[in-house]
Amino acid sequence: MLRIGLTGGMGCGKSTIAHIFSVLGIPVYHADERAKRISEKPETQTRIAQLFGQEAAQDKRKLASLVFADASKLAQLNALVHPLVFEDMKNWFTDLENGKTPPPYALVEAAILFESGMDTMFDCVINVEAPVSEQIERCMGRDRSSEAEVTARLSRQFSAEERRKRARFTIQNASHQPILPDILNLDKAFRQGKVR
Question: How many Å apart are CA 13 and CA 77, to the nearest integer?
């Protein structure tokens, strides 16, 4: 079973592309959603409160405003949560591989896949790109964030150029561009065990 990573900057449309792969019958691990669930566990909440205060532990927006404004605080939060997510993801892959009918490949959607060092866990990585103006517009509409908040978060992620250099494949997801042909081509290759 191939292990495929899917990444891209905020608002690039990773979730939409991941959903299309799931419609094609491919299991998808949503790292950001799993990280949120792991962060809500009582033992993780206690550690977050110790690092950032009780108010930040109970209010996600407060925590986000703290960590995205200070690289050292973001690094502290990542050092706490990332190992827990990595372990959860490894268990997910193992369960799929040991299942009755393992899929030909499985996909992990993660916004900071390269930044976290997670990329070493995959056979290949797909990068999703969109124009920065569209990324900002999508994030503002989705999260009700200000342009300044979105820009600050984007500045903490790798640039599109850096992700493109590190990824095996890149899907352009501008609003006027069809993405389905690229996804279907990748799906066909992965089902045949090809990652080049």
Answer: 25
Q: What is the pLDDT of residues 38-92, one digit of tens each?
A: 999 999 999 999 999 988 888 888 898 888 788 899 889 999 999 999 999 999 9
pLDDT at 130: 92
| 112, two tokens | 């900071």
Task: Write the Ramachandran bin of 11: left for phi over 0, alpha for psi from -120 to 50, otherwise beta.
Answer: left
How many domains does the chain contain in total? 1
Cβ 156 vs Cβ 70: under 8 Å? no
What's this model's pTM, rounded to 2 decimal places?
A: 0.87
Q: In Å, what is the CA distance from 187 to each residue of 93, 94, 157?
A: 18, 21, 27
- Structural domain that includes position 156: 2-191
**Does residue 196 form part of some domain?**
no
- Decide if 144 is inside a domain: yes
